[in-house]
Amino acid sequence: MITVLSGGIGAARLIRALSGVIDPTQITAVVNVGDDLVLHGLTICPDLDTITYTLAGLNNDELGWGLRDETWRVMDELDELGGAAWFRLGDRDLATHLYRSQRLSEGATKTEVTAELATRLSVNVRLLPVTNDPMATEFVTDRGRLTFQEYFVRYHHDVVVTSIEVVGASTARLSDEARRALHDASRIVIAPSNPLISIDPILQVPGVREILHERRENVVAVSPLVQGTALKGPADRLLRELGHEASSLGVVDFYEGLVGTWIIDEADAALAEKIRGRGVHVEVTTTIMAEPDNAERLAKAVLA
Amino acid sequence: MITVLSGGIGAARLIRALSGVIDPTQITAVVNVGDDLVLHGLTICPDLDTITYTLAGLNNDELGWGLRDETWRVMDELDELGGAAWFRLGDRDLATHLYRSQRLSEGATKTEVTAELATRLSVNVRLLPVTNDPMATEFVTDRGRLTFQEYFVRYHHDVVVTSIEVVGASTARLSDEARRALHDASRIVIAPSNPLISIDPILQVPGVREILHERRENVVAVSPLVQGTALKGPADRLLRELGHEASSLGVVDFYEGLVGTWIIDEADAALAEKIRGRGVHVEVTTTIMAEPDNAERLAKAVLA
């Protein structure tokens, strides 16, 4: 049984790779919900959906998000009505949000709805929102305070960030299922997701840091940076803007006290000794999962 | 200035006919919201939408509801996910509900959102929900207590109704705009909508009955029944089940004290004397609006 702390696409790819190496039913993902939003009355969970769609083989590789074979009739009409169409929701994707919003309104928890959607889409990995409570990652920027999706989608993270706040995190309750998954896993994996906006919101839920700290010898983290650069998204820029070093070493320090073993990319091999100096194990392999062979190698390193 | 108490399709057709005879900007519709619902997180206003779509020339005549050139991608996907797809929402139609739900969540009133949608769709008649407060028409039936759309759509009104309750009506606040439209109109028209489930919820909003009673010499009602039969929907059956006579006379008695002039169909001419006996004026004309000529004749009778 392994448990993966997960953001969106980076985590989805790692979990997909892990599923190729071990029985998917032995994998649990504890997923960030800090970028969840309510828009048009719909509860949208981008990270959970990205993982679900990717593991179902339904992800849209062209866009890098959403579902394949997507159409945009609703958004096109909404745009004509003068509605807020900047957050693109495809017709197929909307069905997920309608389903979730209805079930939540009937009293189901986010954990239950996530499981229902996974079952419907034949996903065998267990997906758990870290909490059933609302949490919202917000950004103080040169354009004012922004919600996650304003920051990420509307402004394409092209703003100067001075601080990040995860509203609701300090009072959010770690779900029983997520708590058990963290306690019972033989190994906890921190996916190569954005440390500041994908993983940190999970760590801010009371209890998570404590469990990781206690179990750090069983915690393996994959660095999301290669030669100081994020493969996707604003992790490097954010680390710099918020006073961290934009390198695997900076990420190691960011997770100080929570990780026993680090996996870094071959291109960062020169950092291995310095990272070992922080008192952790270091494995050097490919962390770029574009090629299936590399993804499998990384998965095996994570499980080794 | 005339003001029309309105349900859905029957009212929409009358208003469309009236718009052909007088300047549409001189017409206000005060519309039932008792069949509004929140489904999948979306606030849906079937009567307001039917009128808006019909006046915009976008109504789907084939279905008798919704928008023309409609597609069903979201519903098909929702059905595959096992979601509640019995209440069919087309892709174009969904854009309306997304727009409304988002604007309501931003603090706009239903009155404001209705005006915005009408403007976007170039509707010149003024459409006013009778209240901005929530109201829900519910049915006590042989299948238990049903919401409006469960009764109407899910069970196709093929159930035995023992009573109807408009939850929230007694505390709903007649909107200022609707109150003024009723006060200021030179004529108030009661559309040939279902008396029990389209018009009565409007009448139950405190203040409406009083205004109509005071102004009854200026109130014209069009009977929704022809030879005891509703052209569409369950008005006749409901009247019978709830102890009223299923005829134009039954409807006249249902609206007792609120109407000065009745318009009934030629086929019911034999009832005219009996209705006059109730102390009201009676005009006999065609009330069936299928032919444009007939619709115009009816509109002229209403305005005469």
How much of the residues of chain A is beta strand, in percent?
A: 15-25%
Low-pLDDT ranges of chain A: none
| SSE run of chain A | EHEEEHHHHEEEHEHEHHEEEHHEHEH
The best one-word shape of chain A is globular
In quaternary terms, these chains amount to: homodimer
CATH level 4 superfamily of chain A: CofD-like domains
Alpha carbon gyration radius of chain A: 18 Å
Largest interface: A-B, 33 and 33 residues
Secondary structure tally, helices of chain A: 13
Strand order of the largest sheet of chain A: 5-2-1-9-10-13-14
Output mean pLDDT of chain A.
96
Largest pleated sheet of chain A: 7 strands, parallel
CATH domain topology of chain A: Rossmann fold
Q: What is the count of distinct domains of chain A?
A: 1
Secondary structure tally: strands of chain A: 14
| CATH-level-2 architecture of chain A | 3-Layer(aba) Sandwich
Q: Which CATH C-level class of chain A is it?
A: Alpha Beta
- Counting helices, strands and paired strands, the structural category of chain A is alpha/beta
Distance between the termini of chain A: 13 Å
Proportion of residues in helical segments of chain A = 25-40%
